[in-house]
Design goal:
252 residues, alpha/beta, 38% helix, 23% strand, globular
Length: 252
Amino acid sequence: MGDLISIIVPVYNVENFIEETMDSVLAQTYADWELLLVEDCSNDNTVTLIRQYMERTGDSRIRLLRQPANMGAARARNRGLREAEGRYVSYLDADDLWVPQKLERELAFMKEKDAAFAFTGYEFADERGRGTGKVVHVPEMLTYKQALSNTTIFTTTVMFDTKKIPKEQLEMPVMKSEDTALWFKVLRSGIVAYGLDENLVKYRRAGRTLSSNKLEAIRRIWNLYRRAEGMNVISSAGHFCFWALRAVKRRI
């Protein structure tokens, strides 16, 4: 067995996707993982499907954690982080998919770079999880200053080494764009994020009303610069322009 990787998945009303997402974890070529499904009080058939899947597969690496109330993705991920037993932590959204080599390739990359924080390339996918051919390439590395205007780090591609970054530092802020706020927080401490420019993830965009709402996305990123990073209006506007250009480029 190798180094244990804890995979943290916030789960809320994803009955149409969760089984396929779990399938993509079980298909991994790297087998030393635990899957922490943090269920955030879904009101559809999600919990029943997860329990049936666990019974059907009999895979003891899958753990279902129930939140006492609907508390949002940031708190769900933080709950998973607290209960994670692995040295390495990966995030996976409940409607996204990994290619079978994702964990194996990213872990090897982290060891090669002696990295504390890594992320990979990814491909946009339709509602059925089929790749659209639009692949997002990532830079070799990102510092805090670079990341402020280049938010290409996508949650489902990330891996952390908790021997290099204390778990307390990996707690997600409870705010909108909590994932990007976490990347900024970690990078601000002087850590560098290393990018593995391989397409190892399928990002299913269909049905993501928050992400697809352009005005809401603009508000979230602007507030991130102003509130979380404490930038003045001029600095925020400069970084925002670079963010907007790159965001458009990723989608065309």
